[in-house]
Write a structure and sequence with these properties.
Elements: E1 8-14, H1 21-29, E2 36-42, H2 49-54, E3 62-66, H3 72-83, E4 88-91, E5 96-98, H4 102-112, E6 116-127, E7 135-137, E8 158-160, H5 161-166, H6 178-189, E9 191-204, H7 209-216, H8 218-235
Parallel strand pairs: 1-2, 1-4, 2-3, 6-9
Antiparallel strand pairs: 4-8, 5-9, 6-7, 6-8
């Protein structure tokens, strides 16, 4: 581990992502303009993910952990959060790629806005199915309140570490949509800052947990959000 304290701690939770992690880690370590550490944890993968991660430990910025049993992303990221030394944390999953200059841009935005606790940009979502065109996701926070449809991008965002810890990190009991839950709680605790540039590429896989969440929990979540929306419309609640 580098002796100089990092500015940004990149948190990577990976499971069965041996075919993805090399490109992802390379995109993180090639970031310029910030001192970073990369904390990666293999969530009890059944493929060669852990072995792939270990190959990067020659870089002093990289630290690799492994869960003996599957904990799912929320609890896995909390393990990494406990070790984070940076003033900022950047969650980045195995299917994400950071574009050049992303971390420096988001950190600079937060430095200019001390009241903001989260900075995020746009994500280019690309699909494994060759006939599906990519789509751009991420909009300014004033254009939405519920964070549904990933209006606020979790992966590739930069979050002040003290705030991430203050809200309790991720809920370890959630196996799906733990990123939505975190962003909702952060939105109640701080201002969000939107940077209108593409910061990440999200390589959505056929068995992505996001697709599973959309299928299993999406309908229920839509019902809850619709009910809250109706309540706010009738009561004038913020």
């Amino acid at each position: 581990m580098s002796a100089a304290r990092p500015e940004v701690s990149v948190l990577i939770a990976a499971r069965n992502a041996a075919h993805l992690v090399d490109q992802q880690i390379a995109s993180v370590l090639s970031q310029q303009g910030v001192r970073l550490e990369l904390l990666a944890c293999d969530d009890a993968s059944t493929d060669g993910t852990f072995e792939r991660l270990r190959r990067w430990q020659h870089d002093p910025r990289v630290r690799v952990l492994r869960n003996r049993r599957r904990l799912f992303p929320g609890a896995t990221r909390n393990r990494l959060l406990a070790l984070a030394r940076g003033n900022y944390c950047a969650p980045c999953d195995a299917d994400d790629l950071l574009l050049p200059g992303s971390l420096a841009t988001l950190v600079a935005a937060l430095r200019r806005r001390p009241r903001a606790g989260v900075a995020y940009g746009q994500s280019l979502q690309v699909f494994a199915e060759p006939r599906r065109p990519p789509r751009l996701i991420g909009v300014a926070p004033e254009r939405h309140w519920d964070l549904f449809e990933t209006g606020t991008n979790h992966a590739g965002s930069v979050i002040r570490t003290r705030l991430l810890r203050a809200v309790g990190g991720y809920r370890p009991g959630l196996r799906l949509a733990e990123d939505w839950d975190l962003m909702l709680r952060l939105r109640e605790a701080c201002d969000f800052l939107y940077v209108p540039r593409i910061t990440t590429v999200w390589r959505l896989q056929p068995r992505s947990r996001s697709r599973i969440a959309r299928g299993r929990a999406g309908v229920a979540l839509e019902i809850v959000l619709a009910a809250v929306s109706r309540r706010r419309a009738t009561t004038g609640a913020p």
